[in-house]
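Students often ask why inverse folding is considered easier than folding. One informal answer: many sequences map to the same fold, so there is more than one right answer. In these notes we will look at a single instance of the problem. The structure comes first.
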């Protein structure tokens, strides 16, 4: 399997080269030249496979320059660091809705599904490509990617990680998780700005030749969801979720299932699109946005306009105005790097992108967009608990709202975070919120009767190791001092 740039001017790469590079020289993103197919018969044969077996079956079709032995070594991580034997347990709620829990990894958000395995894929990529220089991995985070990357890459040889997060745009637990990170090779920097400022700064640093020259002892890379090593492992749980329903007798082979996905950078839902292209019987992919509903508008009208007000919401990991992975979806629809290049050049200059009507129609056959206000998010939390005795975090609640509004068949809601990452927001739905985050955790525990994960419990006894905050114009200076 070979990988090419969405913008058409970068030649062909192996998977390991693409994972190590992160982003193409022409500013495009790596995409597979074609989608590997999985037949219904093969899906049937996987019915009783465990997570690791499904992972191997999917990844070996994409990572063709990794040996089966190497893939198994990477995939073993799911047994080592995930707390649930099923890795992604599925919970049946009322009204044909199922919740697929993607937060049983060490940092308690779905980012671990990819960021636990990606450092292993990355390390093997460095070996394969005979990379001698250290890798410098730049991460922009809206809250969860940062900690997941810090955890995944900590103390790996030959790799340094710098995380930029919006200083005032993450939850208390998210911030503490990052600020207390251990590891000789990690830096965490708060930014006076929002996620888009962090992401844009990181993208520009990549393409800044002067800076690259100054940093020439490093090879730059990215652990953001634009990296192929993030995208591919996320395909696995779409298959696994479907297989779990098949195994449990909830669906029959070939029956279509819809997925509702709480969306920010469009990475999670894009993996669902890949699963569908591969042959998984996926009906609709519901793209659930919060009050930052730029994607909703795009999928309704065909025009993406990033020039708009930015809202801080209760689902901060979705507070994004520029959804990077959308570029990949548009590429797969257009199948024409030159046309995409034109669109994105325009977008980079004007902040506006308009898709032709025919392409938009094609997208609308699969993607159903919706968005939830803050009130709707709280109502989804309250009503789901009231009706099902099941507590949602605010991100999953946004997807639940979308699922219930648009449901036409059995629907899997992807649950992307453990509730204790967002206790105070959740308690707002019940009017029980207090000022202190750790007090809120206790209140939420009494209410939900869910165990508090150890990694959250111990947070307030850990030492703050990283408390630097810099202006968004000064991010380069951080790197110059490495
Ligand atoms: C990152 C994140 C999302 C959004 O996922 P994207 O791949 O960026 O669309 C949703 N919920 C949570 C909890 C997240 O951490």
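Output (designed amino acids):
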């Amino acid at each position: 399997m070979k990988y090419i740039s969405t913008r058409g001017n970068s030649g062909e790469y192996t998977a390991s080269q693409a994972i190590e590079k992160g982003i193409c020289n022409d500013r495009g993103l790596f995409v597979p030249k074609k989608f590997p197919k999985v037949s219904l018969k093969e899906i049937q044969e996987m019915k009783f496979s465990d997570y690791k077996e499904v992972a191997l079956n999917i990844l070996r079709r994409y990572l063709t320059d990794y040996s089966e032995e190497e893939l198994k070594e990477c995939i073993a991580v799911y047994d080592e660091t995930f707390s649930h034997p099923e890795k992604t347990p599925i919970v049946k709620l009322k009204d044909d809705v199922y919740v697929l829990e993607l937060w049983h990894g060490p940092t308690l958000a779905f980012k671990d599904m990819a960021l636990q395995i990606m450092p292993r894929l990355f390390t093997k990529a460095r070996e394969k490509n005979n990379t001698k220089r250290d890798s410098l991995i730049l991460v922009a985070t809206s809250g969860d990617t940062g900690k997941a990357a810090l955890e995944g890459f900590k103390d790996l040889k030959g790799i340094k990680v710098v995380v930029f997060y919006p200083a005032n745009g993450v939850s208390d637990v998210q911030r503490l998780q990052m600020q207390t990170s251990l590891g000789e090779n990690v830096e965490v920097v708060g930014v006076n700005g929002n996620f888009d400022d962090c992401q844009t700064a990181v993208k520009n640093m990549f393409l800044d030749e002067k800076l690259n020259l100054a940093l020439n002892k490093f090879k730059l890379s990215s652990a953001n969801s634009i990296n192929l090593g993030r995208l591919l492992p996320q395909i696995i749980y779409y298959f696994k979720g479907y297989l779990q329903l098949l195994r449990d007798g909830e669906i029959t082979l070939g029956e279509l299932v819809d997925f509702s996905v709480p969306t920010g950078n469009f990475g999670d839902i894009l993996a669902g699109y890949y699963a569908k292209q591969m042959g998984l019987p996926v009906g609709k992919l519901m793209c659930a946005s919060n009050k930052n509903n730029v994607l909703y508008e795009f999928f309704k009208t065909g025009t993406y306009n990033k020039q708009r007000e930015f809202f801080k919401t209760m689902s901060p990991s979705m507070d994004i105005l520029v959804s990077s992975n959308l570029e990949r979806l548009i590429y797969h629809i257009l199948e024409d790097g030159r046309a995409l290049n034109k669109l994105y050049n325009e977008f980079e200059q004007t902040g506006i992108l308009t898709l032709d009507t025919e392409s938009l129609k094609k997208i609308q056959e699969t993607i159903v967009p919706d968005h939830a206000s803050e009130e709707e998010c709280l109502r989804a939390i309250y009503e789901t608990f009231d009706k099902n005795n099941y507590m949602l975090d605010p991100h999953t609640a946004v997807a639940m709202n979308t699922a219930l509004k648009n449901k036409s068949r059995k629907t899997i809601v992807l649950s992307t975070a453990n509730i204790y990452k967002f206790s105070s927001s959740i308690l707002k739905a019940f009017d029980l919120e207090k000022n202190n985050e750790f007090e809120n955790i206790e209140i939420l525990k009494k209410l939900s009767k869910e165990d508090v994960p150890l990694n959250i419990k111990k947070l307030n006894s850990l030492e703050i190791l990283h408390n630097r905050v810099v202006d968004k114009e000064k991010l380069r200076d951080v790197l110059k001092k490495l």
